[in-house]
Design goal:
Length: 91
């Protein structure tokens, strides 16, 4: 059973030409092609990450433990008091 017969495909193309206009159709087709390429590459990357994660979960947890803790410092000129406003610092 075919989903799109040649006649229905022709109707879709004519409808797209009327909807978008003849000048925009190449841009629309190019955008759809880029989107499909990006989706395909992201799918491959996700499958690769999933396969790598299934093979070595112990190595990933060991790497997470070995990572040093990060300390967030205040911006230069900040008073350090969490609720201090500019007027409090000036006074």
């Amino acid at each position: 059973m075919r989903i799109l017969s040649p006649a229905s495909l022709l109707v879709v193309v004519v409808f797209a030409a009327l909807l978008f206009g003849g000048k925009r159709l190449p841009d629309v087709a190019r955008g759809i092609g880029r989107s499909l390429r990006i989706l395909k590459s992201e799918g491959k990357a996700l499958r690769g990450e999933f396969a790598a994660g299934a093979q070595a979960p112990a190595a990933q947890s060991a790497a997470a433990v070995a990572e040093p803790e990060r300390v967030v410092k205040s911006a230069p000129g900040a008073s350090g008091a969490p609720g201090a406003s500019r007027t409090d610092r000036a006074a």
